[in-house]
Amino acid sequence: MGNCCKESPRKILMQTWACQGKRKSEARIEETLAIWYALQKTLEKGWRHIEVQSNCKGIVDKVNSGYYEDLKITNVLEDIQTLSVMFQCCSFSFVRRGGNAASHHLAKFAISCLNDVTRENNFPLWLESSTG
């Protein structure tokens, strides 16, 4: 899974995280875990405002509605809700994959990683060029 943190409103890339994830899991499970991971990492940094963008509309809808009928991800969705109230401002929105290209490229990169990778202020060209 890949997460990118950008400074708003200029959309400057600030930090990225690439985490192995389960890789063979279902997309909705991976995306739910990616959101949870982003919240965890952002809290660790001490940042208190976050807008989580995901290209998985179904998961965004579940997080925003608070209705979790999917037993495979219920616990993680509940954890996301618990973490989200720790921020001064936290929102979840759907964005098409093209609008979230940096995270998509980072997730593809994470598949080949043996360990989690964190980058701050020093990003490879392929990642910088996808932040648009």
Automatic annotation (TrEMBL):
<dbReference type="InterPro" id="IPR012337">
    <property type="entry name" value="RNaseH-like_sf"/>
</dbReference>
<dbReference type="InterPro" id="IPR002156">
    <property type="entry name" value="RNaseH_domain"/>
</dbReference>
<dbReference type="InterPro" id="IPR036397">
    <property type="entry name" value="RNaseH_sf"/>
</dbReference>
<protein>
    <recommendedName>
        <fullName>RNase H type-1 domain-containing protein</fullName>
    </recommendedName>
</protein>
<feature type="domain" description="RNase H type-1">
    <location>
        <begin position="21"/>
        <end position="110"/>
    </location>
</feature>
<dbReference type="InterPro" id="IPR052929">
    <property type="entry name" value="RNase_H-like_EbsB-rel"/>
</dbReference>
<dbReference type="Pfam" id="PF13456">
    <property type="entry name" value="RVT_3"/>
</dbReference>
<dbReference type="InterPro" id="IPR044730">
    <property type="entry name" value="RNase_H-like_dom_plant"/>
</dbReference>
